[in-house]
Amino acid sequence: MAPCLTLLETVTAATDVRLQFASYEAGAENYLETGVALPDDVLRAAASADAILLGAMGHPDIRYPNGTEIVPQIDLRDHFQLFAGIRPIRAIPGVRQTLADPRARDIDLVIVRESTEGLFAARSESQREGIAAVLDTMRITRAGCERLFEASFELARRRGRNGRAPRVTCVDKANVLPSMAFFREIFTAFASRYPDVATDYLYVDAAALRLVRAPWDLDVLVTENMFGDILSDLGAGLIGGMGMAPSADIGAAQAVFQPCHGTAPDIAGRGLANPTAMFLSGAMMLDWLGDRRQVPECHEAATRLTRAIDRAFADGTLVPAEHGGKAGTAAITERVRLELSS
Fold first, then answer.
1. What average pLDDT does range 226-230 have in this prediction?
2. S-S: 311 plus which of 86, 150, 291, 339, CB 3.0-4.6 Å?
3. Domain 98-238 has CATH 3.40.718.10
4. Distances in Å between the alpha carbon of 182 and those of 94, 100, 150, 216, 237?
């Protein structure tokens, strides 16, 4: 988080944009110390902020009495109805690719994950039958789908990749689950509002296969909450891992920006964490603020930061620790800072 804030100030310094940051404590360690993972004052501050930049805040060994992990990021999605989880999957030049096919360098897709209902709705609706069973509920609503599909089609329109027609792929399990057949039915009806955007369909298992076999052919994939959670990690694996994977959770009024990865307590304090996903999440925040506040300079700053990150890795000499290299947090930050200054 700290180097990300520094780079955000650096990239906006030459503009009329001035970012003011206020930091708040939340997460697993806060729960351990106070019994509250996401305090009310933090929620109030987040509600009044223009944007929320979130650091990883879980810990696998700190859990609620029911055995689940501390997940304030999900609490924020529920509280602010951040229904559109945007997960860009883009190959960064110079970063070692997982797939051997040379077309892997052209991977540039976005998974749009519904973030307020689906199977995750079971967090508050589970029914336990003593020691015999637990029933979780898949919740799909028309209102939830329509706002998700609108965000997905608008995103596809904006992306405009290399002159190719925008495409939105509906990812579901409509051949088995009635809830997913409903999801697909709404998607089909909604698509008629966007005749300029191509559409197609994949069952979620086929989507996992396609992501490995030919991800460079995909554009925007829209899917249910749990499916999106799983496919997002698969997608991150295609571009070098979770340290390269940014995200945004966007609602009607607020938005949260955070790296897809967790806290990695096994390497805490060693300076090994890859900050790239955090930096790219910061760039996504600037881009969203540019739309939200109608400030073109925010868009320009987002582009500058993203291009500086690309240039930092382009020659292949900056190899993050999780890829077997020696570049930790400080080295990656410094290279990006130098590229911003050039």
1. 97
2. 339
3. yes
4. 42, 38, 16, 29, 30
